[in-house]
Amino acid sequence: MFMNQKSGVQDVTLGTTATALYTAPANTVARLSSFTFTNQDVAARTLSVHLVKAGSAPSNANRVVAPYVIATNEAWTCPHLNHNLNPGDALYALADVAGVVSVYGSVIEMSKA
Fold first, then answer.
1. 17: nearest Cα among 99, 95, 107
2. Which backbone phi and psi does 62 adopt, to 5 degrees?
């Protein structure tokens, strides 16, 4: 088994529709290790996060962070994203205003081969 810790998400700002931030590669189990969301706006914003199984879409059933209010200039490291993603599973997120909440995330990828 091969393990690789890497920056899975960087230089990304959230949009107003749920968008895939990271998808576990084929033959790989990915461990979400740390994800920090930063509100760059002058007003509080809300964000939501989904862990979506391969072949599915973001929905209330797979939302793991309900609308979370992130204060102006707050950097919030989410304690709820310490999960494994199987091949093809993905992390999705969105905010109430596009382009003002940035995200940086680290993952540990473990090959299944």
1. 95
2. -115, 15
Token representation of residue 5: 């810790």
**Backbone torsions φ then ψ of 23, nearest 5 degrees:** -125, 130
- Give the pLDDT confidence of 4-43 residue by residue, as tens digits: 777 889 889 999 999 999 999 999 999 999 999 999 999 9
Structure letter (DSSP) for residue 53: -
The Cα 60–Cα 69 span in angstroms is 17
Distance CA 59, CA 102 (A): 22
**Residue in 85, 82, 87, 49 with CA at minimum distance from that of residue 67:** 49
Residues making up the chain, counted from first to last: 113
Cβ atoms of 98 and 16 within 8 Å: the answer is yes
User: DSSP state, 112?
Assistant: -
Contacts of 108 (CB under 8 A, 6+ apart): 3, 4, 5, 6, 30, 31, 33
